[in-house]
Amino acid sequence: MTETPLHIDTLVIDAESPERLAGFWSELLSRPVVDRTGPYIWLRRENGLGLGFQQAGESRPGKNRMHFDIASPDPAAEQQRVETLGGRRLQEYTDGGFLVMADPEGNEFCIIPEGSGSVGLDDQGHAHYLD
User: Per-residue pLDDT tens for 39-71?
Assistant: First the structure.
């Protein structure tokens, strides 16, 4: 056994409609679909990270236990683009100060300002970049 640290190679998202979801994320991230293998659809690997979509027989059962943070120089403009692509803003998270969105199948993700440390949090963990 080696002492080499592990790293995340690929994120795979279960989907009722992998084609639709891959299309949404492909447009949002400007990563074209590069392969279709069995129940999987793969977007172009970038910065060493793969992103795939897997056919799942059932819908998402509840709240995500993990989510993406998508960095943007203009989160408000990106919100409009997400909505144009079929996503939506999740209003139930507004009090937390984060711009929380959902893709067409309800998978949650945040749009945050680009640059490390640009999401200042108060003592309760609330963001204020939308103020």
Answer: 999 999 999 999 999 998 777 667 777 889 999
Does pTM surpass 0.90?
no
- CATH superfamily membership of 66-131: 2,3-Dihydroxybiphenyl 1,2-Dioxygenase, domain 1 (3.10.180.10)
Q: Which helix (H) or strand (E) holds 19?
A: helix 18-29
Strands (E), 1-131: 10-15, 33-37, 40-46, 49-55, 68-72, 88-89, 99-102, 108-113
Q: How far apart are the C-alpha atoms of 116 and 16, rounded to whole Å?
A: 34
Backbone dihedral region for residue 112 (phi beyond 0: left; psi -120 to 50: alpha; all else: beta): beta
Residue ranges per structural domain of the chain: 7-57, 66-131
Tokens representing 79 are 């919100």
Fold (CATH) for 7-57: 3.30.720
Region for 39 from its dihedrals, namely left if φ exceeds 0, alpha if ψ lies in -120 to 50, beta otherwise: alpha
